[in-house]
Amino acid sequence: MNKEKTITVTTKVQSDLKQVWEVWTGPEHIKQWNSPSPDWHTPKAKNDLREKGRFSYRMEAKDGSMGFDFSGTYTKIVPYKHIAYTLDDDRKVSIDFKEMGDTVAITETFEPENENPIDMQRSGWQAILNAFKQYAEKH
């Protein structure tokens, strides 16, 4: 991953690492938190969490006006610590989980796409990460 051309978003979740990992990787959980705003949702999520395993999340506007598949292949899994994958458009993503007492710090770094402004991509990914934090702290 070219560090000069990446975007990083972070959060800290008040929960234990095992629970954070389960909520991050479980398809039934993913469908509950994977959206940047209340007018979007993820009606379908598949996750084969292993190196060379595939994932696919269907993200849609709740009014049905648009939607897309977010999918790729895992390149590295270190349980409870690190996930790396390549999206179907060849962009690289890495996620690090670090336990800090009763908090888990999550750092997500990704290569941006070329269609939308960097700030828009950063705020969209951060909004999804914030939705994850809110959901994970309740479960």
From TrEMBL:
Lineage per the UniProt record: Bacteria, Pseudomonadati, Bacteroidota, Flavobacteriia, Flavobacteriales
Superkingdom of the source species: Bacteria
Organism from which the protein derives: Cochleicola gelatinilyticus
Residue intervals of the Activator of Hsp90 ATPase homologue 1/2-like C-terminal domain: 18-137
Identification of the protein by name: Polyketide cyclase
UniProt-listed CDD domains: SRPBCC_CalC_Aha1-like_4
Pfam families: AHSA1 (PF08327)
InterPro entries: ASHA1/2-like_C, START-like_dom_sf
Family: Belongs to the AHA1 family.
